[in-house]
Every structure is written in C-alpha cells, then in structure tokens.
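Sorry, any thoughts here?
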Amino acid sequence: MATQLHENDQGFTIAEPERLFIGGEWRAPADGTFLDVVSPATGAVGARVAAGGPKDIEAAVRAARDAFDNGPWPRMPIAERAAIVRRIGALLRERLTETTWATTLEMGAPLPMARAVAERAAALFDEYADIGEAYLIEDVRARANGEHAVVVSEPVGVVAAIVPWNGPSLLAALKVAPALVAGCAVVLKPAPETPLDAYILAECIEAAGVPAGVFNLVPADREASDHLIRHHDVDKISFTGSTMVGKHILRTTADRVARVSLELGGKSAAIVLDDADPELVVSRMATEVTMNTGQICAALMRVIVPRAQAKMYGEMLADAVAKIRVGNPFEQGTQVGPLAMKRQLERVQGYIEKGREEGATLMCGGGRPSDLGDGFYIQPTVFANVDHRMTIAREEIFGPVASVIAHDGPDDAVRIANDSDYGLHGGVFTRDVDTAYAVARRMRTGNVGHNIRTIDWQMPFGGFKQSGLSREGGVEGFRNFLEIKTVYVATPPSTLAKA
C-alpha cells in the first residue's frame, strides 16, 4: 500500500475499531462507550474506537492474571517466546505504511517522522527477542561454604503498560516487547487521543500466535485508567507521561508496593561552550525546537550559551527556526505539523504569553500560522534574554518553544543546567570530547550527548530527579520486567550443573 498524503484517503484498516481486545477476543465495551479520535491537522473527528470502562479493565486484568498464573506463556522456554515476538515485529513491518498514516492522523506528526517512529517500534521486537535469548536467566553462583545459589530472573507478572500520545507506537513497543519476552502478561492502555496504532499492534500480536490473555488492549480515559493502576492483581506499572500523573501513580500504588517504572517530563539543557561551532549548534537546536512540534520529553529546549555570544545565538537560532516549514502533516515537504490536541495548543499559547509578560525577548514565532485553517498549529518560537528563573525556562512546555539563556563560564552553565526539577537529557557543545565528557559527568541528568541529543534504544534511557524512575531501552529495559529470586542448593540442579 502506498503512503497516503491526504487525510481523507484510507491509509489504514482496523478490523474491529469499536471493540476491545481482551482474553484473546474482540469484545464490545461493557458500557457501550466510544472515543472520538480528533485529527490535529483539521480539528475534526477522524476516527472512532471503543472506550473501555472499569468493567473492561477488570476483565482485561482478570484475563492477564489467568494467562500469567495458569497459561503456557511464562513457562515457555525463552527461545519460544522470542520466536513469537519476532513474528510480531515482522507483521508490524508489513503494516508500516498503515501505522505511519494512523499516527499522523491521530497526533499530527509529519509522515516521514511517523514512518521513522513506526520502523523503530517494529525493530524493538527483534531487539528484545535477541536480548532475552542472550540474558542469563539462571545464574549459578558458588558460595563461600562450598555450596551454591541459583540467582533466577523471573517475569514480574501482570503489567499495566500506560503510554502517552506524543510517540505512541514506539512508546508502546518499549514496554510491550520486553514484557512479552520476559514472560509477562500485559494490559496496554494507550492515550485516549491516540489509540489507532495500538489497534494495529494488537492485530499483529493476535496474528503472531500469542496465547489468549497474554496481551490485552483497552483504550480508556481517566476513570478506567485509575482503576487499572489501583488494581491489586497488577504487579507492575510501566508508565510514560507527565510528572504529575507519575506522582499520582506512586501515591496510589504505595500501599501494595507495586513495581513501578516511570518515564516522566523534562526541561533539558544544551550547554554551549565558547569553542563550539555556531553553525552546528544552531542547526541541531533548530531541529530540537521543531521535531515533533516540540512534543518530545527529552528535547533540549534550554539553550545555555556564553554571555558574549548570546545575542548572536539568539539571532541565528531565530533565523533558522523561522525558515522551517509548518504545514499539513499529510503533505510532502512539511517539516512541522500541528500540536496533538487543542488543549496542548492552548497550553503552549499560555506559556508564550507568560514569556512575554516576564520580560523575555520574542525572537521569532509566538503566534498561529494564518494560512492553515482550523488545525492545532503554532509557529515555532524562540525567546532570547531568558533568565533561568523565568517560567518558560523552568516548566515543561511540550511545544516548539526554546529559551536562549546566557552563562558566565562552564561552572555557571552547569549550575544553570542543574537548577531544575528535571533531569532527563542534556547536551554539551564543544570541539573537545574530553571537555564534553567532563561537563557531562557534572550534569544531573540521565542522558547527555556531545554536540547532539542522541537516543539509542539499545542503550538505557531515563531520568534523574522528577524525570522518572528506572530505565527503558536495552538490557536495562528488559530487567524492568523481571523479579530476582535466589534459590540456595547444596549442589547445582542437574539441568544447570554444567552452567
């Protein structure tokens, strides 16, 4: 199927959009309710899917619990699970164009970006199959007294995988793929605004032969989501989203000491030193401001530059950002699409106004494009003369709004970068790798790039402070879905004696 370039073309097919996938069956929602998927490109309803309620969450958790406690999946050799998970990846690759189109419809990412995200999501199923097969599940260790212990990694149990709307197919894969390889049962709860790609994933999982109940799909809004995180049969919650909701999950699950991993917000800083290449800095920062319309938790939106060069960087970045094309995400040549939702547009507009009120200098953008109709579009925006104590420099805007902040040397730059509730990503721009590494080690953040923001999902990703708990990606992301058990034995079991 060729990639479709217009919203009213049929770019994907979902067999049962008005049903939920629970216990290996497509079921009508218990309360007969539905979610309208609004296209951010036009503000009009583009699709309709089932909305799960508390009764549906109950059924999904019950199915997952039974599949984990009594079904074959957790007891399969990991190589057998890995083979099935690879089939999921292969089926997703067959439907890349569909996932691309669905993602653009539901959250407004330009088609090339949506395609890249879909490709990366499919690849994660292969990568986690490889990681699982290579992982030492049963580790025989000698003890000081001459006896032995077997340190066993076992699946954590029933997983609630809760994903946001800003990169839904990739963020679902980061949870579902390692959880399945580990032997867990999963209830996937996509954001109510962006459920379409999750239906394609569910169809691929069903077609791959995953046993009934091991994977369940329940798109839902707040009430049902809260029922999911409170459910005592959910062993593990893997959540990506806002820091506010992450704190709520921690409070809610504390009484039962549920396992929780959280990938939350960010207000990441790019430290620019005086020997950096200005052209490189500006080209990379212009991409940071505009990629996914600024709706990336790790984006480097605080650009901390030498005071003597602050005017230059403000002007250069504004000039570069102003040239980037905002347009309909279904049209070729569009570099920046709309924000994902009307409320997100209103949020970004509020922060832009706050920046003006607090005295920052608006260098470019700040308004809505006049030629793009009723979609949720905003001009990419650069502020200069930003004090690091201003609201726009401290709070996560989640839109295409960058702040240029002056520093008085490397020590001051690190101080400003670390003066944040968040610590998700960072960058150090300098011609010297040793300097970059030394500065990176001083930054209180979970990831740092030299002259770029890099995310490699074969490596651990996550944050310090209020940017989250635990890590996703790579072998660390696999360990998220394992419990550790130590079995003490006088001699190794015969099945492990040669290990």
Summary: DSSP finds 15 helices and 22 strands in the chain. The longest strand covers residues 148-155. The chain has two domains: 20-264+467-486, 268-450. The radius of gyration is 23 Å.
